[in-house]
Amino acid sequence: MLAILALTGPIYAIVAVGWLCTRYGLFDRTDMRVFGKYVVNLALPALLFTAIAQRRFGEVLQPVFLAAYGLGSLASLLLGLLWARRVARKRVSASAIAGLGMACPNSSFIGFPVVAQVFGPTVAGIGLAMALLVENFFTIPLALAIADSDGGGEGSVDAALRRSLRSISRNPMIWGIVAGFVFSFFRWELPEPVARTVNLFATACGSLSLFVIGGSLAGIRIHGPVARDAGVVAIGKLLVHPLAVLCLVLLLPPMERQLQLAVVVMAAVPMMGIYPILAQKYGHDTDAAAAQLGTTVASFFTLTALLWVVQHFWA
User: Fold this and answer.
1) Which controlled-vocabulary keywords does the entry list (predicted)?
2) Do residues 306 and 243 lie in contact, with contact meaning Cβ atoms separated by under 8 Å?
3) Which residues of 175-193 are buried (b: 16+ CB within 10 A; e: fewer)?
4) DSSP secondary-structure letter at 252?
């Protein structure tokens, strides 16, 4: 257990430092948005490109990973939607946002650093690329289309899907993945000075992304009936989603063992950082922020337990 804590402890220590620095005024939440833009627009695209371009195309494109992660995310999304509609009696838009919180992890800012600590940056980069493809082309557009079908958003379901596609086309991380696939397929290599420059951007990703997560959580409060719903979403994200992905990993054809473990760990991290922002359009940002805070805090214990199980029974 001490060995596992030695892996997860520094990760959550950086999150805590980000929270403390923002809570006590060394930085403010506006600074976190600037740092986050740097990670999303420069560091993560560089990291994704490097991780993909340096390996053979057949090693990078992992259809079993995509299937396990995509179908597991769909199962978690539908279970969240069902709970919110049938049990919590929420409207369709709120139910879709709850399902999104259970099905779409923060693979970029938390999943990658955790997987990189355990399995190394190459496996983490490939896992992140596969996860981002599923999230951006499937999970997020589906959840937002369901939310828009309630009339709580702007426009029709078709309009929501078109907005999602436009957002994807402008996403630097997606372009980093595409460029990496092209270089991997044709076995191209960057000139050494350019490759070193890209690597310098990539190495800034891990610690800064964790710091941003901590700073973004400063000032969020959980109280009243919001706490109950936040707890259910946290259970769905930290337990149901990775269990669904694990079941599919065991049922689908085998892939490299480290990738099997990486996809489960990736599914076990808290929901994505923009979760409250996506929920804001439908008027559910308070619930989403509370769920994000509770899930992030609880994930220290659930991820530590998961990594202990992986080390002792599955590695």
Assistant:
1) Cell membrane, Membrane, Transmembrane, Transmembrane helix, Transport
2) no
3) ebbebbbebbeeeeebeee
4) S
Q: Which of 44, 60, 53 is nearest to 202 (CA)?
A: 44
- For the stretch 202-251, pLDDT in tens is 888 878 988 998 998 888 877 767 788 889 999 999 999 999 999 999 99
Where are the strands (E) in the chain, listed by range?
Answer: none
- Give Dmax (Cα) for the chain: 58
Q: At which residue do the structure tokens 């804590």 appear? A: 5
Which tokens belong to 255?
């892939």
Look at residue 49 and give its three-state secondary structure.
helix
CATH 3.40.50.1370 assigned to domain 27-303? The reply is: no
Q: Which residues of the chain have pLDDT under 50?
A: 152
Backbone angles phi, psi at 271, to 5 degrees: -70, 165
DSSP state of 41: I
Q: Where are the domains of the chain?
A: 27-303
Given a contact cutoff of 8 angstroms between Cβ atoms, the answer to whether 55 and 65 are in contact is: no
- What does the block give as tokens for 58? 């057949």
- DSSP assignment of 279-308, as one string? HHTTT-HHHHHHHHHHHHHHHHHHHHHHHH
CA 297 to chain centre: 15
Could you give the 3-state DSSP secondary structure of residue 271?
strand
126-165 per-position pLDDT tens digit: 999 999 999 988 999 899 888 888 764 555 567 766 777 7
- If one counts every other C-beta atom within 10 angstroms of the C-beta of residue 64, the result is 18
